[in-house]
Structure formats: structure tokens, C-alpha cells
Amino acid sequence: MAVELSLDDYVPTIGTLPPQASAEQALAWVERQRQHHIRGTGFAFCIADAATDQALGQLGLWLRELDAGRAQAGYGVAPGARGRRVGTRALLSLLDFGWTIPGLHRVELFIEPWNMASTRTAEYSGFTREGLLHSHSEIAGERRDMLLYAAVRGRQPRPD
Ligand SMILES: CC(C)(COP(=O)(O)OP(=O)(O)OC[C@H]1O[C@@H](n2cnc3c(N)ncnc32)[C@H](O)[C@@H]1OP(=O)(O)O)[C@@H](O)C(=O)NCCC(=O)NCCS
Do the domain assignments include residue 96? Predict the structure, then answer.
């Protein structure tokens, strides 16, 4: 799954998975994901098919701002597994998990405005679009605008 994910043009620009990763590079990335829990910087999950356990993608809940009551989420679905709203189902599960963490009040997503697959995923998961943050992040060597989406504890309309 990690090798397939690395073939996506965008995924390697927003994380540490190298483009067109070798099996060795992909396994090293998996190991880096596992270090988040050990270091207390967040939780990295593999999205798996509940029936077959096949790996479909990844998502993370990053907790560096937990002292302020905030977390950030990020996700990617392997190209061959897209088109079935896997990201939405994974993000809803992530929220269920997130609200079990005492002191967490907001889960935030930062999404580039062109990324409609991701903005739809956020909206289908009950996140609210809060605004456009100009020149918020550097991606692939360029400053990029980001939409801020948030889910707030106790205020989430649960989608059907
Ligand atoms: C974002 C991502 C996880 C969504 O994958 P997914 O869960 O398989 O999502 P789907 O392909 O089912 O698409 C979700 C919705 O967006 C829509 N969509 C997808 N691509 C779209 C596009 N280019 N324009 C408009 N709508 C689009 C789909 O039609 C679907 O809506 P529908 O179910 O009403 O038809 C996946 O595209 C991905 O991994 N992208 C690369 C990494 C990334 O961008 N991560 C997020 C960073 S913020």
C-alpha cells in the first residue's frame, strides 16, 4: 500500500514518503509512522478493509498542540482504493477515536482549495469549512493557500 501511495503525485509532497518509493523506503516510512506514538507526537493508522484486512491507505492524528486542545488530521488513500469514500469512513472513525482523548476539543484539517476529493471527504465527515489561510504552508517549494476545516467536540452533525 505504501509503495502504491508513493506513486501518487501529491502524497510525497505533503509528508515523508519518497516518490516512487522502493519496498525498503516504504518500510522505512511505515517505521517512521510508528515512531509518532512512541514519541507522543500522534497516532498513525493504516486504513484497512474490514472484511479482508487489505491495507487501503493511511491516516494520522497529530497531537503536538494537544496542550491547547487541538489536533490535526491527515490522510491518503492508495490510488487503486479510491472512489468508494474510504477516506470519509476512516476520518469518521478517527474522530470517534479522537473524542476519547481527554482535553481534545478540535480536530483540524488543512486542505488546498483545488483538492476537491479531500474537501468532499472533510465535508462528508461533518467537518466545517472555517476559512482560507493565505500562504499557510510550503509544499513542493511553494507557499500555498490552505482551507481550514474543523470538527469540534460535541458540535459534530453525524452524517448518514
Ligand atoms: C483525499 C482522498 C483520501 C479521498 O479518497 P477517497 O476516500 O477514495 O475519496 P473518493 O475518491 O471516494 O472521493 C470523495 C468524493 O470526492 C469526489 N471527488 C473526487 N475527486 C474529485 C475531483 N477531482 N473533483 C470533484 N470531486 C471529486 C468524489 O466524487 C467523491 O464524492 P461522491 O462520493 O459524492 O461521488 C484521496 O483522493 C487521496 O488520497 N488523495 C491524495 C492525498 C490527499 O490529497 N490527502 C489529503 C490531503 S489534505
Answer: yes
Locate cell 474490514: which residue? 50
Write down the pTM of the prediction: 0.95
Atom 35 of ligand 1: nearest residue by CA position: 83
Looking at the domain assignment, is residue 121 inside a domain?
yes
Beta-sheet strand order (sheet of 128-139)? 42-48, 55-62, 70-77, 106-111, 142-152, 128-139
Ligand 1 test: best mutation among 4, 16, 45, 85, most atoms within 8 Å of CB? 85
Q: Kindly state the average pLDDT of the residues 28-47.
A: 96
H helix or E strand, kind and range, residue 143: strand 142-152
Ligand 1 geometric centre to CA of 5 (Å): 14
Helix H or strand E encompassing 92: helix 86-98
Count structural domains, the chain: 1
